[in-house]
């Protein structure tokens, strides 16, 4: 339903005058979603249609941090905050909960999960011990459950693979060292090559997924964040291919006018350049 006239007038002043910035953002979102005066695109959205944007904005925050582009972080964090406000507004319209309930829930959770800060427990613990305590409290909150319950389906696949493996490892379902993991990688790679030649596309995709899952397990054993490692590899590829384009442009050429042998030589040149500049 549309806002009453008095509420709309107050909202207009808050939206355009600024100040009370959290209240201002909430007022902006209410206006965007107003069925009579709001934005048609915003009015048409629901939880499912907004969820991909929420994931995208979280990744953009991670990208800014990885690039140490601190001048962009304020804006990206604002975009991410907007996603929470958006979902909370839709929830309020549906009679589920409001933004204040979201804030109360996370505040209660943080107090409950930090008894060494807000309660009587000792702070004399390592970060690893505190992480174990965090997981123990989470498990108690969930109550009786299967080992892998609660690992969010919406996580990036590599991140979710690591979390699933960590859960299984807590009950002893884990290889004792990286040697067994590396051997399994070789086994899965061989199965993938075999699948390429004789299986269907779906079966090839399954074998490829098995290989990625074991690669994520190796990352966990090596204490490497696979998402961060892959982002770094993507950045390196982008940087080096950019140098290939630069050198080709200096020669009056485009990548389409080059060939693999020339571009591979330029790749090695870019690689050597980076090593020399370290």
From TrEMBL:
Its EC number is 3.6.1.9. It is an enzyme of class 3 (hydrolase). Keywords: Hydrolase. CDD domains: NTP-PPase_MazG_Cterm, NTP-PPase_MazG_Nterm. Residues 45-118 form the NTP pyrophosphohydrolase MazG-like domain. The keyword Hydrolase applies. GO terms for molecular function: nucleoside triphosphate diphosphatase activity. Pfam families: MazG, PRA-PH. This is Nucleoside triphosphate pyrophosphohydrolase. InterPro entries: MazG-like_dom (IPR004518), NTP-PPase_MazG-like_C (IPR048011), NTP-PPase_MazG-like_N (IPR048015), NTP_PyrPHydrolase_MazG (IPR011551), PRib-ATP_PPHydrolase-like (IPR021130).
